[in-house]
Design goal:
With 160 residues, this protein is mainly beta. The protein is built from one helix and twelve strands. The longest helix has 16 residues. It is globular and about 40 Å long.
Amino acid sequence: MELFLVPKGSKFIVQDKKQRLLYTVKKKAFGGKFLLLDASGYELYSFINTVQGKKPEFNIILNDKIFMTIKCLSVFLDPSIEFNYQEDKFKDIKYTLKSSDRKNFTLLRNNEEVGSVRTVVDMDKDLCYEINIEDQFFDDYIPLFALAVERAFGDMNKNK
């Protein structure tokens, strides 16, 4: 499956390669909170910045509970982000995004490659994200992996 996270004003849209709108990621007015909405506007997940700085951390919230924690493990040497489920039934599944340049990430599920997140600069010099993932591993929260890359590495990548 191929998706694109594209900035549109104060929000991001997630579309497929035929440019059909699948999701919207809206920033809440204050704080580091984002909402992932489906195409009809129904709130699916929240994405909250919990630790600022060089190694930011985030939570994905589902039904007012922490569904997944996200930690930036390294920014400069072997840039990587780790995603850990907080629900017992998913405890043995771990996703990791690894890169050598902070722009092109390999998506690993339990250390096996299942996809990628690539940073692309559009005509307006905005950073967009191309998400590729094997269909059987896709779920609604996967576009938030690209948002984690944007929040952790976006400012550094814009300044290049």
